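lol forgot to send this yesterday, sorry. struct tokens for the thing we talked abt
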């Protein structure tokens, strides 16, 4: 039996610009719970893309869940260590 990797899990897979824009808008509007839910879905679909992990960490921190925010932020840095904005 062959096991196929979903296209979104392949190296280099990335969310669409619209998805990134939507999450950024939710964050900027202070809609942190909605942002968290969508960021979790994004990290499940694109686990190798730093943006989802980063915005998840920011949303959790904005919700006051600082200890929970650490792991996603660490994952974002691990995936994209050269991004000084993380």
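and heres what i got for the seq, position by position
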């Amino acid at each position: 039996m062959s096991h196929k990797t979903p296209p979104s899990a392949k190296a280099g897979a990335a969310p669409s610009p619209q998805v990134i824009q939507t999450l950024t808008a939710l964050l900027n509007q202070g809609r942190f719970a909605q942002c968290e839910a969508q960021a979790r879905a994004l990290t499940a679909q694109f686990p190798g893309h730093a943006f989802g992990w980063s915005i998840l960490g920011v949303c959790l921190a904005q919700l006051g869940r600082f200890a929970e925010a650490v792991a996603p932020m660490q994952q974002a840095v691990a995936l994209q260590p050269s991004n000084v904005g993380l």
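The domain at 15-79 is CATH 1.25.40.10 (Serine Threonine Protein Phosphatase 5, Tetratricopeptide repeat). anyway ping me if u want another try
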